[in-house]
Structures are given as structure tokens and as C-alpha cells.
UniProtKB/TrEMBL annotation:
Any GO MF annotation of the entry: four-way junction helicase activity
Domain Helicase ATP-binding intervals: 54-247
PANTHER family: ATP-DEPENDENT DNA HELICASE Q1, DNA HELICASE RECQ FAMILY MEMBER
Family of this protein: Belongs to the helicase family. RecQ subfamily.
Record InterPro entries: DEAD/DEAH_box_helicase_dom (IPR011545), Helicase_ATP-bd (IPR014001), P-loop_NTPase (IPR027417)
Gene3D superfamilies in the cross-refs: P-loop containing nucleotide triphosphate hydrolases
Record bears the keyword Cell membrane: no
Organism: Mycena albidolilacea
EC number: 5.6.2.4
Catalytic reaction(s) noted: Couples ATP hydrolysis with the unwinding of duplex DNA by translocating in the 3'-5' direction
GO cellular component assignments: chromosome; cytoplasm
Protein name: DNA 3'-5' helicase
PROSITE patterns registered for this protein in UniProt: HELICASE_ATP_BIND_1
Length: 373
């Protein structure tokens, strides 16, 4: 750490001669960031609230962003790294600040589906992203490919991890590799509301995020994202504790998540949820809207799938019309299901567990959710 007196002397001289220290969260900073982003993404116009949050992170201020699903939460991550990369490559863009030559953001995601979508979206933006979880590590080993942790050492701008990977030996070795340690510029955590919901129940690794943050370089900002941070102060404080941030010491960006185009209907289920027949769901076959059906267990997902399959004529491709999404499926199969649902007109229904409810963007088609069972 550099001695404090030169910083104090610089601050004193700035006051003495009327020179303002540069900050990204300022009119000049906003304009600079917007110009950089438009240069990198000519067809993309960042929202003002995205610039607001990104500039705070660039100033090394922790960010907790609460914005609706589909409003561009992931933008806080990829817009930040795009600006960092641009300034690292061309320091003349902003001589007042510096970023590592090969900057990177580590992102923690709660489910494989979010990791898969994020990796794919980053690739479309020209950002080198790498997803590491138990499945991808095993798959790479089976194919005889290079160790993913070694591959992450350089050239990867967005490292996407499951929470369990934060306490793995592979990640420990990666942080001990000094060149990687030096180039990490931020820690992102998606769907932070799950820190309390899942972390206290069955995924204890969620509770380690705040502790793991202490292993990064001092001053690394955290980017916490969610659409559903409850107003209950006890729940919110528990989430902030898991993140390792304190009230009043981070920037809270909260936007309304009211969705006036969503209609909620309740229908009574008269058939037994442990049974094999679900006539109350038969209407989705004739409705022909894109539909998600959420089941509390994988067993329930299978039974609903079997019942709806039995209601279709033999001429219909059942495995295309009705898909399932759950943790027993291969990751590639779940990813294929999402892509088919978005792009194929005959893929109408996904029967899934709660994992698909977290952070998934189905905006390419009008989607009707038939609720949780």
C-alpha cells in the first residue's frame, strides 16, 4: 500500500489550486463512459440508471442494484468490464485512473442456467467469458481439455462461478496465481436475494461470499444484483452481511419492479399433487401460448410431463412440444430447452423446477407462467 502522505498532498494541492479530482460518477464521467460504450457497442444505448451504477463501480464503490427482471441487470457487469478494458488498452481515454492490463470480473451465479445464459450473452458482446462449475470441470476433464482453472488465468474477462466453486481448491490456486489476483477488478453476485433464502437452508456456500471477498485485492468493489430485495430490514441486512457490505457504505440503486402487464390468476387444484393426473393443466395444450409450469420437485415435473404427453395425439412430437428442465438433465440439454423455447414455434411448454425461475430472460417470446405446484 502506498504511503498516505502523497495522497494527502495531492488532495491538498487540488483544493489549493481549485483542481477537481476526477470521478466517473460526475457529468464528465458519465459522458466519458457513455462515449466508450457507444464506441464498443454502436447499436446499444445504455440506460441512465445503468450508467449511474456502472460509474459508481468504476469509482470503486460497492453497488447493490434492485431492478426488474428484463431491465438489464446483467448490463451492470458487462458495461463495467467493457469500460475497464477500453481504458486499460488506451489509457489516454482517462489518464486520471488506471486498470490492470487484462482486467477481469469474477461473477457468482446461483444456478447453472444463469451461468450458461450469461456466458453466451457475453460471447455475443465480444467479451471473453468462462463458466466454471462442477459439470463444466468434469466435462473438460472427460474431453481431455486444458484445466479450466488454468485457462482462467489470462485472457478471460468474465469468470462465472457457482458459489461452491469459491471454496474449491481450484479457485484457491487461481487466486494464489499473482497475475490473476492482480487483474481482478470487481466481484459480481447475481440474484442476491437467494443468499438468505438458499444460504440459510441448503447451499451454505452462499454464506461464504463475504468472507471470500476479503481474499481479493483491497478496494475491489462488489456488484450485487436482484429484482426482489424485500423491504424487511432483517432480511435485507442478512443479505448485506453475506455480501460483506454495511448500510450507508454502499450505493443502493432501487427501481420499481411493478409489472403492470402481468395478470395473476389463481386456480384451485382439485387433483392430488402426489398423483398422476392433472386435468387442471390440460388447458395449456389447447391455449398454445408459450408456457412455463413450475413444479416443487423433479418427481412432480416428470409426472406432469407424462400426463400432458398422454393428452397429445400420436402425430405430435412430444419431446419438442413439451420439454423438462431440472438438475438431472445434462446441462447441454437444459440449454437446448431454453433455446428451443425461445426460437422454435412448436416448442410450447417447459415443465421445470425452481432453478429456471431465477434470472432467466424469456423476452423473445410472449411467455405465460402457469404457476408453481
Amino acid at each position: 500500500m502506498p504511503p498516505r502522505w502523497p495522497l494527502f498532498a495531492t488532495f491538498f494541492l487540488c483544493i489549493l489550486f481549485g483542481v477537481d479530482a476526477f470521478t466517473f460518477h460526475s457529468p464528465k464521467g458519465f459522458e466519458l463512459v457513455r462515449r466508450i460504450l457507444l464506441g464498443a457497442l454502436p447499436t446499444f444505448e445504455p440506460h441512465s440508471y445503468q450508467l449511474d451504477g456502472v460509474c459508481k463501480v468504476l469509482d470503486k464503490v460497492d453497488l447493490v442494484a434492485v431492478t426488474p427482471t428484463g431491465s438489464g441487470k446483467t448490463g451492470f457487469l458487462f458495461l463495467t468490464i467493457i469500460v475497464m478494458i477500453a481504458i486499460a488498452k488506451n489509457p489516454s481515454l482517462c489518464p486520471a485512473v488506471t486498470f490492470p492490463k487484462d482486467p477481469a470480473i469474477v461473477v457468482v451465479c446461483p444456478t447453472n442456467s444463469i451461468e450458461q445464459q450469461m456466458e453466451g450473452n457475453m460471447a455475443k458482446l465480444g467479451i471473453h467469458a468462462l463458466m466454471i462449475n462442477a459439470e463444466t470441470v468434469a466435462a473438460a476433464r472427460t474431453r481431455g481439455e486444458e484445466d479450466l482453472w488454468k485457462r482462467a488465468r489470462e485472457g478471460i474477462s468474465m469468470l462465472i462461478l457457482g458459489p461452491e466453486q469459491l471454496i474449491s481448491r481450484g479457485f484457491q490456486d487461481l487466486l494464489n496465481y499473482e497475475p490473476f489476483y492482480d487483474r481482478v477488478c470487481a466481484l459480481g453476485v447475481d440474484e442476491i436475494h437467494l443468499l438468505a433464502m438458499w444460504g440459510l437452508a441448503f447451499r451454505k456456500a452462499f454464506t461464504q461470499i463475504g468472507f471470500m471477498r476479503a481474499r481479493f485485492r483491497p478496494g475491489i468493489p462488489i456488484i450485487g444484483l436482484t429484482a426482489t430485495l424485500l423491504a424487511d430490514p432483517q432480511i435485507a441486512d442478512a443479505i448485506f452481511d453475506f455480501l460483506g457490505v454495511n448500510r450507508g457504505e454502499f450505493y443502493l440503486l432501487r427501481r420499481s419492479n411493478a409489472r403492470h402487464n402481468i395478470q395473476i390468476l389463481f386456480r384451485t387444484l382439485y387433483s392430488g399433487i402426489d398423483g398422476l393426473y392433472f386435468p387442471e393443466l390440460a388447458w395449456v395444450l389447447s391455449n398454445r401460448d408459450k408456457t412455463l409450469i413450475f413444479g416443487a420437485t423433479i418427481s412432480l415435473v416428470f409426472r406432469i410431463k407424462i400426463y400432458l404427453d398422454s393428452r397429445l395425439p400420436d402425430s405430435v412430437d412430444r419431446d419438442l412440444r413439451i420439454r423438462t428442465y431440472h438438475s438431472i438433465n445434462w446441462p447441454e440439454e437444459n440449454l437446448e430447452t431454453i433455446e428451443l423455447f425461445k426460437s422454435h414455434p412448436l416448442c410450447q411448454i417447459i415443465i421445470c423446477t425452481n432453478g429456471l425461475a431465477q434470472g432467466n430472460d424469456m423476452s423473445r417470446r410472449s411467455t405465460r407462467g402457469s404457476g408453481f405446484l
